[in-house]
Amino acid sequence: MTDSALNFIIVGASVSGLASAIALKSAGHNVLVLEKEPQLGGIGSAKAPNGSGCAQIPPNGCKILVDWGLEAEINAKSAPCWGFSAYKYAATEVPGPDHLGTNRHDPAVLDEARGGYLQFVHRDFVRMLYDLALKSSDKTGTRVSVLFGTEVVNVDCDACSVTLRSGEIHTADGVIGADGTKGVVRRTLLKEEGTSRRSGDDPGVALYHATVPKALVTVWVGSNRGLKTFVVGKENDISLFLYTPDTCPESAWTREAEIKITDVLGPCDERIRKLAELTGPATCIQHEHSQLESWVSESGRVLVLGDAAHPLPPGASQAYAAALEDAAFIGKIFSHTKSPSRVPEFLRAFQEHRKSRVSFIRQIEDEYLYHILLPDGDTQEQRDAFVRARHAAGHNVFEGEMEQMMEDIRIMFSYNATDDADEWWMTWGRYRDAAELSPVIFSNSGTLFDGEQDAKRQD
């Protein structure tokens, strides 16, 4: 551990939490990750009960993993995706599945983005990040410690400390909440804003997620229903995402609600029903609509990121990539300082730059869901006619009149989080002298990294 390093506490060994730990360690800082679950795995925006859910990594996330030296692990554990085929969700008079069209990813766009579409088993992806986070750093001498079974029950934004259920208090230079939409850090910032989220106030899109052995990648679009299937890692199982306009069962607000996915299919093609019959229990995840006005506490010492800051629609194709972008950005800006007095400035810079980027991502994800869940009617008929015509002519469905959508995708994939962070530093950060900032210094009292706590680390 270096004397000049900053010390961070990250609440949640999620994708956001572990990725941020990797980036901050690479930037020369020490990180303590606190995870309430007893072991790694099963954490994510679309998890299955056994952690077998699909981690979708589009090109803008893939290139971050490659830059972190994970190319060999990517090749060993992920399945590439070259495009998708779209079908009608409900049964039609057409014999066999009613195929609307196909979209193949443009190789030129992927080359420009320096990455591809990857699909991991969620638990394999989290394990990959965990192993990298704990890997010793010869360059900086900094380290990451992960403590399992350590639930944070209180966050003191002014003292920059967290209290565990055991009563232990940990203090740092900065606290980062990566514990999701229901986590304690997000709740703390909501309370600071004078708002709260109540069970039952969030109707809208619900995602029912389950896993099926050995299937193909498809998208089924229907009237207020939509289905996506993804090949999962090297196992070639399938991750099934069913979207409905319903609200998850009340129990889903406090715990993962397992139900039979066949109970919520509605009118559908018989092939969908047969596929659903092969699944185990499904997990229902509700779209979190409430948004934090500020991702940073009034003290400037506590930050939320990932789902805790900017929840995307459940099963969003950009959910994992947005978490990786957050991590890459936070690590890059903090590579420029070891001063505790600059932590508030840097956390607010993170919010300033990442909010606009995430708003752009959310707009695209909402548009995508709109097309999948489009109810039957004139607009739906026009969509189907257009897609069928493009397919009959041998073209991708995201061409022609949907060219703007394709351009948005190009912009989304070409984004580089570290370049964005460097832009802030070159434009603003390097001209601010630390002595001119409010000297709010918090003591790192030694409670952060001691031998007794390290002994609690579990694999």
From TrEMBL:
SUPFAM superfamilies: FAD/NAD(P)-binding domain
Transmembrane segments: none
Listed GO MF terms: FAD binding; monooxygenase activity
Domain of life per record: Eukaryota
This protein's UniProt keywords: FAD, Flavoprotein, Monooxygenase, Oxidoreductase
Pfam families cross-referenced by the UniProt entry: FAD_binding_3
Domain FAD-binding: 9-358
Family statement: Belongs to the paxM FAD-dependent monooxygenase family.
Designated name of the protein: FAD-binding-3 domain-containing protein
Native source species: Mycena sanguinolenta
